[in-house]
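Give me the fold.
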Amino acid sequence: MAATAIRPKEDTVPLIQVKLIEGVFTGPQKREIVERLSEAMIEVAGDSMRRVTWCMVEEVASGEWGIGGQSLTADDIRALAACDSDGG
């Protein structure tokens, strides 16, 4: 059985991946997501990881994302957000 090489800790970097339905979040909102998630990771990993912490926001086309066998669209997510902001 071959041994699996483990990269030394110095060579590893945090990578945060966020997938969103396309057309739901604005550019400024996506930038805020990147900033806040990166800061949370740095808070845990240490400030020395700031320059090597990656955060990628990827958008999935509306209707190409599903939960429980049901496709979700950007309109579905907006309706959920509106319901939440109405207190319902």
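The longest strand covers residues 15-21.
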